[in-house]
Amino acid sequence: MNLFGVMDTSGSAMQAERMRAEVVAANMANAETTRTAAGGPYRRQEVVFTADRGDPNFLDSFGGAASAPGLPPLPGASAVAPGVHIAQVVADPSPPLQRYDPGHPDADADGYVAYPDINPLTEMVDLLGATRAYGLNGSAVQAEKGMIAAALEIAKS
Predict the structure, then answer these.
(1) The dihedral formed by the CA atoms of 138, 140, 146 and 147, expressed in degrees to the nearest 10
(2) Between the CA of residue 109 and those of 39, 51, 99, what are the distances in Å?
(3) Distance CA 72, CA 74 (A)
(4) Cα distance between the two ends of the chain
């Protein structure tokens, strides 16, 4: 992997963590949503990441550097860029919380309302993890920019 490959990997991780933070924000915003278009209470969403390492053979490593921008990659080169990607966003399978509120419009015959099983503490921990991972990848990009600048200075002299 060349220096710019590291930047691509950190960039993909930053995009994935941004999406994770958006999903956490949606969970927090819908913590009291008892009725959705699909019916029933909102279901907590979770992001599932996948790591794509690319094809480790030599042609794949060399293929990206040898092809010109705008042209397709060399035959045999992997189409998936290495890095972190979102595999899917899945609904939490835990059952909804039942609260007794007979005056609520969504109450059942016994007076219970189904609320999403969303714990604000869990969501804040997820948000903190996404924020820190985003920041660390940003730091990696900044460090890489410093290495590239240093390499250019060495090449100039």
Answers:
(1) -150
(2) 17, 47, 13
(3) 7
(4) 25
Nearest of 131, 138, 123, 121 to residue 17 by alpha carbon: 131
Q: How many helices (H) and strands (E) does the chain have?
A: 3, 4
Q: Quick one: which of 38, 73, 67, 29 has its CA closest to 54?
A: 73
Cβ 116 vs Cβ 96: under 8 Å: yes
**Beta strands in 23-141, from DSSP E residues, in sequence order:** 45-52, 83-91, 97-100, 112-115
State how far the Cα of 98 lies from the Cα of 118, in Å rounded to an integer. 12
Q: Give CA–CA dist 1/5, Å, rounded.
A: 6
CA distance 41 to 33: 6
Residue 62, token pair as written in the block? 């060399």
Which tokens sit at 28?
Answer: 């927090």
Q: Residues 61-80: pLDDT tens digits? A: 555 554 445 555 545 445 55
Q: Is the pLDDT of residue 34 over 80?
A: yes
Q: How far apart are CA 79 and CA 85, in angstroms?
A: 14
For residue 49, report the phi and psi dihedrals to the nearest 5 degrees: -90, 155
157 vs 124, more confident? 124
